[in-house]
């Protein structure tokens, strides 16, 4: 068995290295309390994955403002009452030698009047398919949300997080500002990079230089073939360069389920496009299921680490088994969806 999955990944500078190349991708499990506070169920879930040899756990998308909630029973970090719950998650990860970080999130238009008790918001007036119509944020509200991201970052650090991630992917608020088909603003926030850069700078300022900051992005909002604002190699380059200058230390590249697909009409994978424009470490997610697939992806130079979601849902011991040369449980159809009923299929 190739051991490269189990070598530490330096993140540069004085940052702690990731203990191995197996990262648990962020997963919204909808098992928080109604208010979004951490429950025993969630702590146990993280502990099993850390005990299973996963070197790095990225906690689920965590709403930084009440108006940024995306799902019922999803986790929050919108005020100080949430911090203790996250500390419990960090502690169980550390007890097994894993690193833990939160994924700071605002859903923007991907929400409903019913869930929020108010209208969802976005860069501009816009309705995301399947959701309630969102209204454009005022400039003052944008500044407030930037502060909310920074406050969520501070709370994450108080909880003991080893790193943080910004959820800039999948058509949520950060991505909505980047999408020029959604962001029609005529003020300074109409620059598609302005909001992602401002959030990144504010979070970097809040956490100081010692904590690594990851940024998750995807080109597509809903699915690999969903209609989207055209992103070109040039606009991707501008995005990566601006965010790196604002304080990003590593990329979490979300390819939906298609990390082997070429981008921009070429056969070049998204992560290889990223490498042309940035030398930062790349964590890649998207249908990487078996130890062999993960090892090959890294050995072929497409990523420095892999982010696994469904593979770690069905088998919390994935990494330990991979290290011993054993086969983890396979990801079968939609069997992993039982988590929606509160069952942990990977226990
Ligand atoms: C149940 C579930 C919840 C998810 N929640 C999030 C989330 O909160 N944030 C995020 O960026 N991606 C989320 N994702 C996407 C995964 O992190 C991952 O990118 C995607 O599932 C592809 O990886 P996989 O093929 O290993 O499952 C979720 C995926 C699943 C299956």
Automatic annotation (TrEMBL):
<keyword id="KW-0285">Flavoprotein</keyword>
<dbReference type="Pfam" id="PF00724">
    <property type="entry name" value="Oxidored_FMN"/>
</dbReference>
<feature type="domain" description="NADH:flavin oxidoreductase/NADH oxidase N-terminal">
    <location>
        <begin position="4"/>
        <end position="325"/>
    </location>
</feature>
<dbReference type="InterPro" id="IPR044152">
    <property type="entry name" value="YqjM-like"/>
</dbReference>
<keyword id="KW-0521">NADP</keyword>
<dbReference type="GO" id="GO:0050661">
    <property type="term" value="F:NADP binding"/>
</dbReference>
<keyword id="KW-0288">FMN</keyword>
<dbReference type="GO" id="GO:0003959">
    <property type="term" value="F:NADPH dehydrogenase activity"/>
</dbReference>
<dbReference type="InterPro" id="IPR013785">
    <property type="entry name" value="Aldolase_TIM"/>
</dbReference>
<dbReference type="InterPro" id="IPR001155">
    <property type="entry name" value="OxRdtase_FMN_N"/>
</dbReference>
<keyword id="KW-0560">Oxidoreductase</keyword>
<dbReference type="GO" id="GO:0010181">
    <property type="term" value="F:FMN binding"/>
</dbReference>
<protein>
    <submittedName>
        <fullName>2,4-dienoyl-CoA reductase-like NADH-dependent reductase (Old Yellow Enzyme family)</fullName>
    </submittedName>
</protein>
